[in-house]
Amino acid sequence: MKGSIDTTLFRRHARSVKAHIMLAGIASACILALPAQAQSDRMAPIATPAQPNAIELGTGPLPGAKASESWHSQYGSRFTRNVTVATLTPFLPDPAKANGTAVVVAPGGGFTTLSMENEGWDVAKALAAKGVAAFVLKYRLNQTPQDLAGYEQQQKERFAAAAPRPGANPSAMMANLAPQIADARAAFALIRKRAAEWHVDPNRVGMVGFSAGAMLTMATTLEGKDAKPAFIGNIYGPLIPMTVPADAPPMFVALAADDPLFGNSGTGLIDSWRAAKRPVEFHLYEQGGHGFGMYPKETTSTGWFEAFASWMRMHGWLKPAA
User: Fold this and answer.
1) What predicted TM-score, i.e. pTM, was given to this entire model?
2) Cα-flanking dihedrals φ and ψ of residue 190, to 5°?
3) Is 87:189 a contact under the CB 8 Å cutoff?
4) pLDDT over threshold 70, residue 5
5) What is the rounded CA–CA span in Å between residue 187 and residue 87?
């Protein structure tokens, strides 16, 4: 099937693929396993923040959902869980700086939570400052217990159970992301429909994702049909090999070597893009861990955003559209 993951190489990298399938448990559990140095390191419930510009995408409520959307803070940032209705929030640049390029921003969180601030709003604001119209995608999530204590316990159990499962079906893996892919497709369709209003070139709409959001970015690229991102950014997602379509978009990848999830999973995705003779840029930072996003850190991984912007500039996406 066009765009599906290569099955032979898939088995060879079963641990990375299992991380892909089980990230709902691993990513959150990995964060929860970190030692709490301050109260802000702990999850704390917060009121749903105002999102006046959020636009419902029309993909419908998550089938069978019983828990309702809730928000919490951690590490000085805001997260949401149990998203049942997908939205898209525009962050538009100053018209005097707008260049016609747009980016769909997909936060991560193991498909059970979304890092809306660190990997969403802050990224979008930084892109808008470069003249790029940015759109934060709040996609539907797998259901978790309504209370935070129950959620934490669930993630710890999933993390403990996350062992490699050789021979997993790659098509089934993509099928597990059907609601999220539908949300991403709807985001691209909405941006192109309102391109004139938002001063966007319909042919210059890219996507950047973080961790699970990076997985969604890859799934949207390979299985998103009419979405067809003009370029993509994979920020600390798994680098498993894939069968690359002939028209695969240019790709930017950033990962820390000490990433506890994907730092030792090889560079199969990079090799796949190069073998297909498609443009790819790869930044492997010595330190940064997982989930560095827009958090200011002493590590060079903090420079990923400016590197991404420089890559966009090199390809002409920061120049005004013709």
Assistant:
1) 0.88
2) -65, -45
3) no
4) no
5) 8
